[in-house]
Amino acid sequence: MKSTGIVRKVDELGRVVIPIELRRTLDIEEKDALEIYVDGEQIILKKYAPACIFCDDARDVIQYRGKNICKNCLAEMANSVNNGSLGK
After folding, report:
1. Residue 5 and residue 76: Cα distance in Å, rounded?
2. 37 pLDDT exceeds 70?
3. Confidence category of residue 1, pLDDT binned at 50, 70, 90
4. How far is CA 34 from CA 8, 26, 28, 73, 88, in A?
5. Whole-angstrom Cα distance, residue 67 to residue 39?
6. 77: Cβ–Cβ under 8 A, 6 or more apart, which residues?
7. Average pLDDT, the chain
8. Domain ranges, ordered by start, for the chain
């Protein structure tokens, strides 16, 4: 883990401001969702990337009826439907 030397205080509402330089470097923009992890005594923030419910891949994900599905799994399902083998 790389130290930036930047220190921020937690405000009265429990908020911490992430410096603009870090947000630009990590491509974090206003309204982006961040996942929060705890590792021992460390808090880790990670830019949220929705993952496929079937294979856990975060690339080329679309949302269908509130579920995240990658294009590869979607293509496999379409093939299974066309071949009559869905769910077998």
Report:
1. 48
2. yes
3. confident
4. 18, 12, 9, 25, 37
5. 28
6. 69, 86
7. 91
8. 9-48, 49-88
CA distance 1 to 22: 14
* Residue labelled with tokens 């205080």: 9
Residues 29, 18 contacting (CB under 8 angstroms): no
Q: What is the pTM of this model?
A: 0.59
User: What CATH class has 9-48?
Assistant: mainly beta
What CA–CA distance (Å, rounded) separates 73 from 9?
A: 44
Determine contact, residues 37/46, Cβ cutoff 8 Å.
yes
3-state secondary structure of 50: coil
